Amino acid sequence: MINETYDVIVVGAGHAGNEAAAAAANLGSKTLLITMNMETIGKMSCNPAMGGIAKGQIVREIDALGGYSGIIADKSAIQFKMLNLSKGPAMWSPRTQNDRMLFAEERRLCTRNTPNLDFFKIW
């Protein structure tokens, strides 16, 4: 893999790195995703939620661009909730609470099955 040529190299396999690498690969670029630990790809924080007013906007934009976060959140959800129903419709926002382990497994599976995307583990 060291001797190969890549169009795009993404350093860091967190949520943003995964989405950036997947977007580049899905657009046909030969892409390399570099990570320190293959087992922490897609790991969620201590509050495993996707959605809400601000983060929900980002998830919708990622979804519109062909990203995977919203799809994976739906697959790994343990609770769906509509927030701010006591306010006007402009403030309503869907949110999921997710199974952290299942989310990470789905993220790794989805990322590994993306054509044109290779991985490199450092250290």
From TrEMBL:
It comes from the Bacteria. Pfam families: GIDA. One of its GO terms (cellular component) is cytosol. This is MnmG N-terminal domain-containing protein. Its cofactor is FAD. Homodimer. Heterotetramer of two MnmE and two MnmG subunits. GO terms for biological process: tRNA methylation; tRNA wobble uridine modification. It comes from Bergeyella porcorum. InterPro entries: FAD/NAD-bd_sf, MnmG-rel, MnmG_N. Keywords: FAD, Flavoprotein, NAD, tRNA processing. Gene3D superfamilies: FAD/NAD(P)-binding domain. GO terms for molecular function: flavin adenine dinucleotide binding. Residues 7-120 form the MnmG N-terminal domain.
